[in-house]
Amino acid sequence: MKQKLTKNISTQNGATEFQVRLIKNNGVGLLTTKDEQNYLILDSIDHWYDLIQEGYPKKKKCACKNEYFFVHFVYTQRESTDDIGEILVETTCTNCRKISEEMSVGIDYSPTKELVENPIRFCKKPRIRYRFKELTSYWSVNNLKDFLQFIFFGLKLNVYCWFWKHPENTRRFEKVSFEKTIQIITVNHKYLNFYFSTGEFEAAHLIDIAGENGVYLKDGIWRKNEIIQLSAPTVMLGYGLLYYINYCTQYLDKGNPKDKSDQFEKITNQLHVWLRENFITERGANCFDGKEAYEKFMAKRNSVK
Ligand SMILES: [Zn+2]
């Protein structure tokens, strides 16, 4: 029988009314008291800082316009252990008493006692920024090949790929040669991400789960490590293929921004210069499109208007 336990959230000072900011897909959130003390829910400090670089979550507002809520966590035990398997975050509007189920957070580690005993953690500075880049590009296959050629032979980086191996259909993560890379992007593999780095890295440090269908990598490995990530393109219907490049030249160490190496700073600057020289930046400072792909994007955008 799965046991449930509900806990009404309050701070050490007894505050029970909070402004609520949640990043629901990632199971993290921030509670702010009336005297502007901030608390992160559960065990999310590193994750929180990573996620807010892309945008600070909005305050929850009730339909009645009130911004303050009582917060309750409903803990569900895992089958046949004392550990918690799921935590449901609920809010009650302090004005109209409307109850909402906000998000469910799955917990897969052990022990979990701390999550029950200390469900929220004081956070002195919830808004810390570090130097972070997200570049987007509409590219043709040839643009992608030029980019990869520069990564291999211009910047001389090590290239790793996380991909679906055909025909076994298993997820692989391995260091790849230029020839293999071209094969992956053009022939019969589906890839998830490419990773570029000056050093060699221990695959084992980056792998989260290794199972029958291959490996899953940890989230956001490019944030802490000196890695540039290129994601498999997103198909934007009618607009073409949109690629994302991510890297950051700082990382957070217990909430403090620290610089990555000078070498990594230099490499990412060189990459930026090369992108600016070879692509079109009409869509914005962080957008580097191929000429043809950009024209296709514009044609589609003008036809939609
Ligand atoms: Zn309300």
Protein described:
It is a single chain. This protein has 305 residues and is an alpha+beta fold. The chain has two domains: 119 residues, no CATH class; 172 residues, no CATH class. The protein is 25% helix and 36% strand. It is built from eight helices and 19 strands. β6 and β7 form a beta hairpin. α3 packs antiparallel against α4. The longest helix has 17 residues. The termini are far apart. Zinc ion (ZN) binds next to loops.
**Secondary structural class:** alpha+beta
Radius of gyration: 23 Å
Overall geometric form: globular
Q: What is the strand tally?
A: 19
Total helical elements: 8
Regarding quaternary structure, what we see is single chain
What ligands can be seen in this structure? zinc ion
Q: What is the helix content?
A: 10-25%
Estimate nothing, just give the exact number of structural domains: 2
Mean of pLDDT: 91
- Summarize the biggest pleated sheet: 7 strands, antiparallel
Uncertain parts: none
Summarize the helix and strand pattern as letters.
EEEEHEEEHEEHEEHEHEEHEEEEEHH
As a percent range, the share of strand residues is 35-45%
User: Termini distance?
Assistant: 57 Å
Describe the structure concisely.
This protein is α+β, with helices and mostly antiparallel strands and 305 residues long.
List the helices and strands and how they pair.
Blueprint: E1 4-8, E2 19-23, E3 28-32, E4 38-41, H1 45-52, E5 69-77, E6 84-93, E7 99-106, H2 113-117, E8 120-122, E9 132-138, H3 141-154, E10 158-165, E11 170-175, H4 178-186, E12 190-197, H5 203-206, E13 207-211, E14 214-217, H6 221-224, E15 228-231, E16 234-236, E17 240-248, E18 250-253, E19 256-259, H7 262-278, H8 291-304
Antiparallel strand pairs: 1-5, 2-3, 3-4, 4-8, 5-6, 6-7, 9-17, 10-11, 10-12, 12-15, 13-14, 15-17, 16-17, 18-19
Helix pairs in contact: 3-4
The protein binds zinc ion.
